[in-house]
Design goal:
This protein is of the alpha+beta class and 283 residues long. It contains ten helices and eight strands. The strands form two sheets. It has a six-stranded antiparallel beta sheet.
Length: 283
């Protein structure tokens, strides 16, 4: 009888361990499946439901950062974003169409019409600056309807098409130029690779120009305040996918990639933006 009792206890224990192992496996599988089911996207306050994919948001952040760097109003960024969305879906396209076979880049600029070489118009920084160079020559562009200002620059065969993107363009431009604090949020899966703080700093300075910023370990600290601080912070959120950024802190608020709950209160002093990148994922 004693042996039978021990055998039963062992059987119960083994069954219990198997159930625990099964539950753990099921939980892990569920979490992994949940990650794959996440639709990665970026939203902006007031965008009217028009979200951007992570690569589109990163391009929008660069175009907006160039406007900030040049001291242009958020309106200029709005016009640029509406134009790029209509011309190229805010993507750096390497081909043209029947109307412009040599059109290339974020704005489908044509080398044959003086926008630069093919390599130049495929460089988003050059393309954004070329667009703004043309825009600032348009008298009164700041008070024009977005679609009218865009048409003055692009000379499109469909001048009214830019208007459909105005709500998105205004909302993302306002957030990415820092005019709307906490205006941008991105829902992303967990990083697949480790981040590189030095690369984040390099990309940040390429976008915004001279800006006191240091990189150490997994952290970049940029000295900025006011609207510039929020422009930098939301640039980092928009680039979180490509640069494996996990957290951004600014002005008493933080965005945390895996929390997926938007901006929250945090220990973040005014006058600086702290950007943290991912460590090497566990195998």
């Amino acid at each position: 009888m004693a042996r039978r009792g021990r055998w039963r206890r062992r059987t119960v224990l083994l069954l219990a361990l198997a159930m625990v192992a099964g539950a753990v496996y099921t939980a892990v599988a569920f979490l992994q499946r949940s990650e794959t089911l996440i639709t990665e996207r970026c939203t902006a306050v007031g965008a009217g439901g028009e979200d951007l994919a992570s690569d589109q948001a990163a391009n929008a952040a660069l175009v907006s950062a160039v406007a900030v760097r040049r001291g242009l109003p958020a309106r200029a960024a709005s016009i640029a974003l509406a134009t790029s969305m209509q011309e190229a879906k805010l993507r750096n396209i390497g081909h043209g169409d029947q109307a412009g076979p040599d059109s290339r880049g974020l704005f489908q600029q044509r080398p044959s019409q003086g926008w630069g070489t093919e390599a130049q118009v495929m460089d988003p920084f050059h393309a954004a600056n070329a667009f703004y160079d043309a825009l600032v020559k348009v008298p009164g562009y700041e008070s024009m309807p977005i679609t009218a200002a865009a048409q003055h620059v692009q000379r499109s065969a469909y001048p009214g098409a830019y208007a459909q993107h105005e709500p998105m363009a205004r909302a993302f431009a306002s957030a990415l130029t820092g005019q709307t604090a906490e205006g941008l949020d991105c829902t992303l899966r967990k990083p697949e690779t480790a981040g590189d703080a030095a690369e984040v700093r390099q990309r940040l300075l390429a976008a915004f120009g001279a800006l006191p910023a240091t990189a150490a370990g997994r952290t970049v600290v940029a000295e900025a305040d006011g609207t510039q601080a929020w422009a930098v912070a939301q640039w980092a959120v928009a680039n979180a996918k490509a640069l494996s950024i996990t957290e951004v802190r600014v002005d008493g608020r933080s965005w945390t990639r895996l929390a997926r709950n938007g901006w929250q209160s945090a220990d973040a002093p005014a006058g600086q933006v702290t950007i943290t990148v991912a460590e090497e994922p566990a195998p």
